[in-house]
Amino acid sequence: MALNHNPPPPPPPIETPLVVVEEEEVNDTQVNKSLRRLETFLGIFGFCQYSALSLTLSWLCFLLLGVALPLFIIEFSYCSNCDKYEIRSFEIEILISQSIVAAISLLCISHNLRKYGLRKFLFVDRYHGHMTLFRQEYIHKINGFFRLLAVWVLLCLLLKSAREVVHVIYLHRSWWQSVGILVALLVSWTYSTVIYLTGSALYHLVCNLQVIHFENYGKLLERDLDVAVYIEEHIRLTHHLSKISHRFRIFLILQLLFVTASQFVSLLETTGNRGIINFANGGDFAVCSIVELVGIIFCLHAAAKISHRAQGLGSVASRWHALVTCNPNDTSQLGMNNGRISSSETAYAYPSDSLPISYSESDLESVDYVPIPTNTQLASYMSMYQKRQAFVTYLQSNQGGATVFGWTIDRVLINTIFFVELSLVLFVLGKTITFTTK
Question: Membrane spanning segments where (predicted)?
């Protein structure tokens, strides 16, 4: 009997449904639109200095709008007999302060964008992976960047406008001159403020985009993967975090130093002045201080948030390791018995097939759940236990976080900064304010 040597027909190719393909293309298009919108915004305010021409135009615009225009207005509209409503030294010091912090923001951010490009700067290019997986999260965070910036710029602009209106009313200039000065000052101030806050908000955005990956890292524990995969993913995340810290370290240090110096100059001027300080002649100090502190809070909040997420991975892994080791085969002993919770396990308030992860953000507690791996072979070999133990030890010894020259920016460091600043404030007040008794 002859044998049929014809090979079997190949299996039919697996075709991706057209609806899914179109949906993915739409999502990719939305991400690209969000990134283009962000890049257009940055280009308008001079951050995208990709050529010599754009670099020259950016800094020329900054010098004209952010420095020369308000300086000309201060000199042009100076009133020598109006100290009650206008103090020239105050105006000059405020202009210097806001120009320096805006220049730092423009210089540092434009340097990074010119060196890496927007996608690599934000770690959302395809070569860094996960762009397809986190499309919606990326879009949400980029939209949050614009919302955050718009809300605070508008709030500060309202306060600045109120101060300038009061200032113009009391100086009794002609209406056309008053309107011209008011519009020019508001345009210049808005330009400098947007540049300064954009730098801080971009750092906030970069950290929040990485927070997405750190929060997703806990979900990897629900998959039956080799421990080496978990370690490699953690190394990738900490490597990105190290890059972010390196790129923004000069920016953070300079902003913190100059904002601190600006606040103390404001404190010295207002407490050391022998004249009357009111909203008309000293209100700009309050506006400038609020804007600068908002920018610093953006940076510190984002850095502390990502540091908290990175440091929390050790706790998540240790709980996962303990539950897998103690009960790898029979999940019913964790508290579920035929659909009922046993009385001996009432201490466990979470479901039997989940592992709670608690994060703290802005005084609110949120709980996520990571299912326990169901691989029944994890405890069969001692080597698997040793691998998990080594993995937990690795995470606990390499917590990571946002750093500045090796100093991790977490809640402990923020508390230290706060009390150092408070001590300096009290020292300045002790030197400038005195009480006399008869």
Answer: 41-74, 94-113, 144-162, 174-197, 248-265, 285-304, 412-430
Q: For residue 53, how many other CB atoms are within 10 A of its CB? A: 9
Show the tokens assigned to 414. 């923020």
Torsion over CA: 54, 59, 63, 65 (sign): positive
Alpha-carbon torsion (351, 352, 354, 358), positive or negative: positive
CA distance 281 to 182: 15
User: Where do we find the tokens 């700067």?
Assistant: 121
CA distances from 361 to 242, 302, 364 (A): 22, 11, 5
pLDDT tens, position by position, 132-184: 678 889 999 999 999 999 999 999 999 999 988 888 887 777 788 888 889 99
pLDDT band at residue 367 under the 50/70/90 scheme: very low
3-state secondary structure of 28: helix
**Is 108 in contact with 200 (CB distance < 8 Å)?**
no
Please say whether the beta carbons of 198 and 105 come within 8 A: yes
50 strand-pairing partners: none
Q: How far is the C-alpha of 264 from the C-alpha of 428, rounded, in Å?
A: 8
Q: Which two tokens stand for residue 60?
A: 């020329």
E strand map for 332-409: 336-337, 340-341, 355-361, 364-370, 403-404, 407-408
Gap between the Cα atoms of 229 and 373, Å rounded: 15
* 8 Å CB contact between 199 and 251: yes
Instruction: Tally Cβ neighbours within 10 Å of residue 165.
Output: 14
Residues 303, 176 contacting (CB under 8 angstroms): no
Dihedral over Cα of 241, 243, 248, 249: its sign: positive
Calpha distance 371→219 (Å, rounded): 8
Position 113 pLDDT exceeds 90: yes
According to DSSP, residue 48 is labeled -
Report the candidate in 229, 231, 248, 299 with the shortest Cα–Cα distance to residue 116.
Answer: 248
Query: Which residues, listed in sequence order, are joined to residue 181 by a DSSP beta bridge?
Result: none
Q: Which residues contact 423 (CB under 8 A, 6 or more apart)?
A: none
For tokens 């370690």, name the residue. Answer: 231
If one compares 257 and 379, the residue with the highest pLDDT of the two is 257
Rounded to an integer, what distance in angstroms lies between the CA atom of residue 57 and that of residue 169? Answer: 36
What does the alpha-carbon distance between residue 389 and residue 385 come to, in Å, rounded to a whole number? Answer: 6
pTM of the model: 0.80
